Amino acid sequence: MAEGLGAGLIVLGDLGASRLAQLGLLPEVVAQVVVPGAMVMVLIYLFSDLSGAHFNPAVTVAFTLRRCFPWQHLPAYLGAQLLGALLAARLLDGLPAGHERVRPEQAWGLEGAATALLVLLALATARRKATIGPETGLVIGMTVGLAHALTGSLTAVTLNPARALGPALVRGDALEAWPHWTGPFVGAAVAVALTWLLRGPATSEEAQAAQGHAEGTASPVARS
Prior knowledge:
The protein is 71% helix and 0% strand. By secondary structure, it is mainly alpha-helical. It has two domains: 1-100, Glycerol uptake facilitator protein (Up-down Bundle); 102-224, Up-down Bundle (Glycerol uptake facilitator protein). It is globular. One of its GO terms (molecular function) is channel activity. It is found in: Membrane. This is Aquaporin. It holds the Pfam family MIP.
C-alpha cells in the first residue's frame, strides 16, 4: 500500500505541476525541479520505514538484482507502483484542464486529499520523533508548500478548518466556504484510517508528541 500511495502521489505532483506550468499558473522551474524533488523528499520521510520508499519499478528491480530485496516481493511492489500511478493519472483527468476554477465538490476533495497527506506525515513523524527530531518542521512545512503550489491556482486550500472558518465568518461567507473547513476533517479521518492499516495502534511516543511532551519540537501541523 505504501508503494502504491507513494508512486501515485509522485505522478499527481509531477503531472499536476506540469499542467499548471503549461497554463502559466506555475513557474517552469518550480514545476520541473522544486515540486518533484520536494514530493520525493516528503514521501521518503513518510514511507521509508514501511516499504523502503522505492516508488519506482526500476529502483525495485535494481535492489532485487543486487539481492538486497527478496524476489518473492517483486511482483507485489511493481503491481502497487503501477496501479498507484494509473489511478493518479485517472484522477488528474477529473480536474479542470483550463483556467476555470474547480467546483465546490472538487475543492472539497482537494482539501481532503491535501490534508490527508499532511496528517499522514504528522502521524508518521510523531511515531518516529526520536529519529527524525527537529526535521519534522522542515518536512511538514515542505508538505504545506507543495499543497499550495499544486492547488493554489485552482482553489485556495487551507488544510486547516480554523484557518478557513475564522476569516469566512468575518467575511460573512462561511456557508460558501464549506469545502475548505469541512474537507480537512474528512482528510484527517482518512489519514487516521490509513495509519491504522499501515502502522497499527498509536504508540506512547505518538501520544507524547501530540501532547507536546516529546523531546525536541512538537508537531507544527496546527500552525500550518
